[in-house]
Amino acid sequence: MASTVKALTGNKSAAIGAALCKPDLIAAYPITPQSSVVETLASMVSNGELDSEMVQVESEHSAMSIVTGASMSGGRTFTATSGNGLALMFEPYCRQSTLRLPTVMAIATREMQSPHTVFSGQQDAMSIREGGWIQVFCENNQEILDMIIQGYKIAENHDVLLPVNVCYDGFYLSHLDERVEIPDQDMVTDFVKVFNLSHLSFDPKYPMAVDPMTSGPRAMKYRESHLNAMQNALKVIDDVDDEFEKTFGRSYGGVIDTYLCDDAGLIILTIGSTTGTAREAVDIARAAGKKVGLIKVRFMRPFPSARIAEILKGKKGFAVIDRSVSFGWNAGALYVEVKSAVSDLINETPNFSAIGGLGGSDITLKHVLNCIEHLDNLSKNPMGQAETIWLD
C-alpha cells in the first residue's frame, strides 16, 4: 500500500512512528514541550486505533520504572519526556540501559537549568549522554517519525540490545507542522519484525536474578560488554539506514550526514534542527566563493569519531554550532566531543566552538554566516583553537 502524506508536528510524528511499531506498553507523563506525544498516543489507545497497554503514571520516574518491568518481560515499550522530567527519571533511565533493555524514548529537548524556561535547548539530552543510551538527534519531523521506526530496529538488534533516545528540538520541531510521509503499516511491521528478548528469562520455571548486587571484575565485564555493544551499534546504524532506504526510499546517511564536504576547506558541524539553516548558509557562502561544507552529526551516542576525523583531516578549519554547553569547558557539548575525536588534528586545524539557541532563542542564517566568516578569517591566520563564540 502507498504511504500517506500529512502535515504533522514533531510530537505527532513521534507518536505516529511509535504507534506504527505496535508497542506492547506505553508509559509516559506529560511535560512541556513533549505533552502532545503522550496525548496523541492516549487518544489512539482510547479510540481503539492502537492495541497497546497505556499506563497512566504519577511521574517520569514511575514511567521509566514501568517501562523497565515491561521490557524485562519481553515487551516492546515506548515512552517520551523533556527537561526536568528526564532528570526525574534518571535512576531508572540508567538501569534500563545497563540491564541492556531495548526501548525507544522520544525527547523533545528543552533547557532544564535556572533561570527557569520551558523553551528549546538541548541541555537535557546532552546532560544524560553518559547514561548508556544510544542518542540520535533529528533535523525535521520526517526524520523524527523515521528514527522512531529505525530506533526499534537498532535497539532490538542482538549485537546491540540498548535503548534509543530519539531527540528533537522542542517547539522548533515539537510544535511546528511540516510535510511528513507516513509509511504503510504492513511495511513497518515487516521492517521492525517481532522482538524476542533472549538474554533475560521471565518464566517461573526458569528463575533468574535480575540486577543483583554486583562488584569487582564482574561489574567491569558488564561495562565492557555495554561499550562493545555501543561500538557494534555504529555499523548497525549504517546497516539499518541502508535497509530503510531500500524499503521506504529515504536515507539519512547513517551516523552522520554530509553536505558539500569533498572539496571544502572549511567545515561547519551542526546537530538537530539548526542543520537546515546551516545548509542555506553554506549555499550562500559558496555563491560568494567560499568553499564551505557541512557535517550533520546525527548520533551523539555512539559518537561517530572515526567518520568525523576522516572528513576533517586536511581541512583548513572547522566550527561546531551547539545548542548546549559543557559546564566543564568554555565550549558547547558537541564541540568537546568533536575536539576529542580529532585530537590528533587540533594543532594543525584552526577551530572554534559556537553556542546559540539556548532557552528558545533562534539560531539564524546570519549567525551561521558569521561563523563561516569567522572561520574563514581564522583559517588565513591559523592560531589553533579560538575563543568560544556565543550566538546572542
Describe the protein's topology.
Blueprint lengths: L3 E5 L1 H11 L4 E4 L6 H12 L6 E4 L3 H13 L4 E5 L1 H6 L1 H9 L5 E6 L13 H5 L6 E4 L3 H15 L8 E6 L8 E5 L2 H8 L24 H32 L7 E4 L6 E5 L3 H14 L4 E6 L1 E3 L3 H8 L4 E6 L10 H9 L9 E5 L9 H16 L8 E2 L2
Parallel strand pairs: 2-3, 2-4, 4-5, 5-7, 6-7, 10-11, 10-13, 13-14, 14-15
Antiparallel strand pairs: 1-8, 6-12, 9-11
Helix pairs in contact: 1-2, 1-7, 3-5, 10-13, 11-12
Count of runs of 4 or more consecutive helical residues: 13
Q: What is the rounded Rg?
A: 21 Å
The string of secondary-structure elements, in order, is EHEHEHEHHEHEHEEHHEEHEEHEHEHE
| N/C terminus separation | 48 Å
State the secondary-structure class.
alpha/beta
What is the percent of helical residues?
Answer: 40-55%
Q: Characterize the largest beta sheet: strand count, sense, and whether it forms a barrel.
A: 7 strands, mixed
Strand content: 15-25%
Shape: globular
Secondary structure: number of strands: 15
- Overall pLDDT score: 94
Task: Indicate the low-confidence ranges by residue numbers.
Answer: none
